[in-house]
Amino acid sequence: MAEPSTGRTTRIWRDGQFVAWDDATIHVMSHAVHYASSVFEGIRCYETPSGSAIFRAADHMRRLRDSCRIYRMPLRYDLDTLVQAAADTVNANDLRHCYLRPIVVRTGEQMGVYGVDAPVETFIIAWNWGSYLGDEALQHGVDVCVSSWRRAAPDTFPGLAKASGNYLSSQLSKMEARVNKYSEGIMLDSFGHVAEGSGENLFVVKDGVIFTASLGASILKGITRDSVMVIARDLGYEVREESIPRELLYIADEAFFSGTAAELTPIRSVDRIQVGAGKPGAITRAIQTQYMGICKGELEDRFGWLTMVQNAVTIA
Fold first, then answer.
1. DSSP letter, residue 261
2. 85, 225, 241, 312: which could join 201 in a potential S-S bond, CB 3.0 to 4.6 Å?
């Protein structure tokens, strides 16, 4: 099956029907354009020896539903329908592997912050996308900085919702990092504790213990983050969710990002201070090997995380 040379594909799932890529449009007066009233997910479909498989599809769609509920956006589709729609989108675009972007959007043509009466539409997009921070980063790690931009305070916006507006500060953090020749920025929470990257959760390893910020730091409750913790504990490592002081980044033995797009990316330096030996550590590698092995069907799916994509699909 041939894949496009660019990220775009050909067909997008829109409220139960497939439309051509160029027809999946919304009006400039859509509520989401003016007030960022949309929630979304990022999901990966991997090519495995048994066929294409979507990683933790139901968990992603459950979080999408939760995000809609938090923002009072009526979602017309149940979890089974959304999971099947994701599989259908892979097949409709004749793909073996891809990145999937389900997104629920307030559309319509109206002005004003109050958007409860605006129409709500659901899309699922397939995109050809490699590792977010690059294949080289997966192998050798990335150089990052602590951002001057912080995550919002817990009573500012709901961090558990994966909402588009939440990523405005992430954009600033990412741009700041790139201007200063770093791959990524690490954001602190409103109290000055370590939170997460601009689009990734964060783990720090010290003396054999794995630390990650608690949900109280306004981080996203990442699906990959949860996968990392499950794998780590299964391998016998201690994992602690707690407040992380900034200086722990500078004395860590290992550190890494996790996320659907970034997968599991090691960190080799923070603010030009080398992390550990300046290369991916043994614990990072062990978890990364297990994670990628399960995703790609090279290891047993012992946690039941893969949804196999069926070969047949009826395209509306």
1. T
2. 225
Domain identity same for 109 and 222: no
Question: Tokens 């996308």 identify what position?
Answer: 129
| CATH number of the CATH domain containing 70 | 3.30.470.10
- 178's CB contacts (< 8 A; 6+ apart) are none
Q: What is the pTM of this model?
A: 0.94
Options 162, 181, 206, 279, the catalytic residue: 162
Please say if 221 is a catalytic residue. no
CA atoms within 13 A on the CB side of 276: 21
User: Do residues 219 and 178 touch, judged by C-beta distance below 8 A?
Assistant: no
What string of DSSP letters covers 36-87?
--EEE--EEEEEETTEEEEETHHHHHHHHHHHHHHTT------HHHHHHHHH
Write the CATH number for 146.
3.20.10.10
User: Are 164 and 32 in contact, with CB atoms under 8 Å apart?
Assistant: yes
Q: How far apart are CA 310 and CA 303, in angstroms?
A: 20
Is residue 203 domain-resident? yes
Residues 202, 269, single domain; the answer is yes
Predicted local confidence at residue 37, as pLDDT: 97
* Pair (249, 150) in one structural domain: yes
On whether residue 289 sits in a domain, the answer given is no
Domain ranges, residue 227: 135-280
pLDDT reported for residue 1: 32
Pairing state between β 273-274 and 263-270: antiparallel
Co-location of 201 and 273 in the same domain = yes
Specify the number of domains making up the chain. 2
pLDDT score of 80 more than 90: yes
Residues 106-164 have pLDDT tens digits of: 999 999 999 999 999 999 999 999 878 878 899 999 999 999 999 999 899 999 999 99
